[in-house]
Amino acid sequence: MGRMAENWIRLLGPPRIESPGATPAQPKGRKAWAVLAYLALQDEGTGRSRTASLLFPDAADPLGALRWNLSELRRTLDGVTVSGDPLRLELQPNWHCDALDVMDSAAHPGRDPRRFTGQLLEGLAFADCPVFDSWLSDQRYRLDNIVQSLLYEGALDALAAGSPGMAVELATAALDRDPFHADCNAVLVKALVALGEHRRARRHVARSGDLYRQELGLPLPTEVRRALSDAAPEQDPLVQATPATVRSYLDAGGASLWAGAVDRGLEQLRLAVMLAQGTGNGHLLAESLVTLSGALIHQAGGRGAEVADFLHRALQAEGADGVSRTAAAAYRELGYLSTQRGVPDRAAGWLDRAMLAAEGFPDEQARILAIQGMLASDTARYPDAVTALMESGKLAEAMGNRRQQAFSEALLGRVCLLRGELEEAAASLDRAQAWIAQEHWTSFEPFVAGVRGETYLAAGQLQEAAALIDRSWVMAELAGDHCYMALAAGAEARLFMAHGDLAAAAHWIDRGLEPKPWYLWYSARLLDAAAEVFIAAHSPRASVFADRLAELASRSGMREFVVRGLSHKAVLGDEAATNSVPWLAHGIDNPALAAFLAARHAG
Questions:
Q1: 333-350, pLDDT tens digit by residue?
Q2: How far apart are CA 183 and CA 12, in angstroms?
Q3: Measuring CA to CA, how many Å separate 15 from each of 73, 84, 89, 202?
Q4: Burial group, residue 557, by CB count within 10 angstroms (0-12, 13-18, 19+)
Q5: What b/e readout covers 21-59, taking b as 16+ CB neighbours within 10 angstroms?
Q6: What is the second-level CATH architecture of the domain 140-229?
Q7: Which whole number is the average pLDDT over 128-151?
Q8: Nearest by Cα to 38 from 83, 84, 87, 81
Q9: Does the reported pTM lie above 0.90?
Q10: Is 50 exceeded by the pLDDT of residue 505?
């Protein structure tokens, strides 16, 4: 039997329907395309009345207008079902939608990301539907971010698979979209070096350096320059590449890291990787690469192309299918990186694959659940976050892993703080602090101290808040941890706002903006505080921070921060934002957000 012909709904770029053979009929009118795009991107369906009021706010009969456009879609999309209340779009097996493939890219690993070009509903404008226009802008940022990530990850995967030419093509396509993407620049340089095109690699580094200086007034990121001259550590010629020597270096590296000798530990783990390459043992190489990656991420703050390259190489060495503790850890770390980079759809896919590979390994499942809880919290899916973090904590307790317990409990405390559940937040954070003290885990203390301080602040206990927030800042600054510095600076700004000292609050906002945290949730929270501070100060800087927050949150799928950014813009006189706030806040289960919006936009 021949393969069924594929029909495509193209929503990226100028929208169109593609079918083999004759040119298919196309839906008439921009509103039909708007209905199609909106339904396609609603995972759980959407009510008819809600959809009608969104897309036909000025129609005499909004539901009638919706029915006409639904009939238009049914007329032109043979094999696509649009029905029910809530309305759902269902595609038959021979139908595909490019926007859906991007969103669910983990289920379609063979798709070439270079095929995904153009913006969602490109060329169509909806000024007469301001709330839909806001939703569309949000989804455009989100989809663009996912495609950029797919190109970057594809280049890494090609490099790991020994196809540097393909890596060059994908990295170049990514840089055509964003020439300032440091990780994509680094991957391109690595791929050119792997091809033996050293002169071309040096030219790219020089051109990139000029571009950064001329356009941004910044030096070239160090990871791009380092990609040109990465060198393996020197190996003792008397040390043989055997599984026993690899294990010895892995054990030594772990011991050094536990003792706080991070540089020494990383050197030993790099030697383990180099020796493992000489053994011909794929599993041992994968384990060594994952161990080194974990150390770089969690002890040295590594988040860039080097770490992602190691993880993709590990999956190539281990084999991507089946149950494996090593594969599960590699997928988990890729999910963790995607979570922190603000690409939640990609993160969810990596973490789902991690959980499949972790069957039978409860210690690894506890780690994966914690990152799934973090991701759910970042995207304002708070009930899901609570469920995942509580399950993570239970598994960690059963395994006797105090550090994992502390991590999961601290993140649970963050969720409770964000929801205004202050007693629950305090209890979780106090437990986490006690476990951190038992484990002497000082590197994680700035987070817990900062969030616990904000819990005191939200309860009006300013003196207790100040002690912990100050401690969080000092410890974060001493460690040079940009994420925790941004967290603590935002907390300091809120503390001084509570004291009525807006000048001091503005000072702390500026201090917090100096470091560039990898974890974008911290940037969003700081921008949220900045908008509040400068709105209170009647400063023209307020609109800059509100715009930056709305864009960052839209691109990164941080739904609550999208709403908060629009709320700031509404206070500053943006009428479209005012209309969009209640619409986009719908479905976010957060009593604290609801109370904030009710108080701010009363009347």
A1: 999 999 999 999 999 999
A2: 25
A3: 13, 24, 17, 40
A4: buried
A5: eeeeeebeeebbbbbbbbbbbbeeebebeebbbbbbeee
A6: Alpha Horseshoe (1.25)
A7: 93
A8: 87
A9: yes
A10: yes
Give CA–CA dist 83/89, Å, rounded.
7
Structure tokens at 126: 């909806």
Nearest one of 28, 20, 122 to 70, comparing CA atoms: 28
| Angstrom distances, CA of residue 267 to CA of 233, 285, 286, 315 | 7, 16, 17, 22
559: its two tokens:
């739904």
Query: Rounded to an integer, what distance in angstroms lies between the CA atom of residue 549 and that of residue 67?
Result: 36
The amino acid sitting at 20 is P
Would you state the pLDDT for residue 108?
66
Match domain 243-319 to its CATH number in 3.30.420, 1.25.40, 1.10.3470, 1.25.10. 1.25.40
Tell me the pLDDT of the chain averaged across its residues. 92
The residues, ordered by sequence, that sit 6+ positions from 342 with a Cβ below 8 Å of its Cβ are: 145, 378, 520, 521, 552, 555, 556, 557, 558
Q: Which amino acid is at 593?
A: L
| pLDDT per position as a tens digit, 588-600 | 999 999 999 999 9
Closest among 84, 121, 79 to 96, alpha carbons compared: 79
* Fold that domain 7-128 belongs to in CATH: Arc Repressor Mutant, subunit A (1.10.10)
